[in-house]
Amino acid sequence: MKKRDFLSLYDFSTKELNDILDLATNIKKRPNVYKSALAGKTIALIFEKPSLRTKATFEVGIMQMGGNVIYFSPNEFQLGRREAVSDVAKNLERWVDGIVCRTFGHNIIETLARNCSKPVINALTDLSHPCQGLADYFTIREHKHKLKGLKLAYVGDGNNVCHSLIYGAAKFGVEINIATPRGYEPKVEVLKNAYADAVSNGVNIELTDDPIAAVNNVDVVYTDVWTSMGQEAETAKRRQIFSPYQVNTRLMAFAKKDAVFMHCLPAHRGEEVTDEVIDSEQSIVFDQAENRLHVQKAILLYIFGIKKK
Ligand code: CP
Ligand code: NVA
Fold first, then answer.
1. Dihedral (CA of 269, 270, 272, 273) sign
2. Whose CA is nearest to atom 5 of ligand 1?
3. How far is the CA of 274 from the centre of ligand 1 (A)?
4. What confidence score (pLDDT) does residue 47 get?
């Protein structure tokens, strides 16, 4: 059987993604049922950028299912600099059962996956953050009891998190409005890829530079940092350009009364979101963080082809 990677939500059908979400619901309800599902398996975690949530949730999730973890911190590994990415893959596959990798260029994780006989999971690249995106749709489904027909506004930088939210919206039939400054739109390649799924699910992907227009009457308002990991040199310039895109109570007032506020975290309070919004009743950011655990456990079981015990 061909091994399965988890590099992008785009690679999975709506049915497959719904199956993973259903499995995550079961895991969340009855974690003990899965406590030895990964017994005898060892997963390598390679992180070339900092992490709180992704590292913690993969380590805890794998341990809760009886598996083992080897963690490689940023700089320890130097994918492609100390050693060719393909050689790293061909070494690791001899020892471990799977790889979770956070890196810079998306081509690095694709090379890793192509050269490795064991499953590779994308734990964030410059292009996408599929574990985050899938956990976010799980969290929305928990709060709104459905996905199809909902409206989501993403306000800020057209970045990795935005790209995974676009792919998810197209797969799950969620209308998505994206408000970015000109020049910071999501990548055309992602919009093109998502288009066919959006059409077949009857939803639009709207781009605008007007945050109010994007947020008008939506069920979910989502934002992320203005400066992603690796872009630190642009921080001051971005602070200026993005300041009209702050999610504050004035902007939230244009969304539906029962709209939720989401952020993948880490948040830069006072920049892309105010304390008032992130600490409000509408904010579900810590549910998102918790659900990374349940959804990633489901992703692991799904790609390993492990059925419910
Ligand atoms: N949201 C997220 O991936 O957080 P970390 O960067 O802390 O892993
Ligand atoms: N866009 C952010 C997400 C962090 C989880 C970054 O890449 O730094």
1. positive
2. 51
3. 19
4. 97
Q: Is residue 297 part of a domain?
A: yes
Residues having CB within 6 Å of any atom of ligand 1: 51-54, 124, 132, 264-266
Residue 167: domain span:
130-285
* Among candidate residues 149, 154, 151, the one with its CA nearest the CA of residue 202: 149
Q: In which band, very low, low, confident or very high, does the pLDDT at 76 lie, cut at 50, 70 and 90?
A: confident
Look up the CATH number of the domain holding residue 296.
Answer: 3.40.50.1370
User: What is the C-alpha to C-alpha distance for residues 58 and 56, in angstroms, rounded to an integer?
Assistant: 6
Looking at the structure, tell me whether residues 100 and 50 fall in a common domain. yes
Q: Is the pLDDT of residue 309 over 70?
A: no
| In-domain check, residue 296 | yes
91 is written with which tokens?
């070494």
Asked if residue 164 belongs to a domain, the reply is yes
The alpha carbon of 61 and the centre of ligand 2 are apart by a number of angstroms equal to 21
pTM: 0.98
Distance CA 239, CA 244 (A): 10
Of 179, 246, 225, the residue nearest 206 (C-alpha):
179
Edge-first strand order for the sheet with 205-208 is 205-208, 175-179, 151-155, 220-223, 260-263
pLDDT, tens only, 174-210: 999 999 999 999 999 999 999 999 999 999 999 999 9
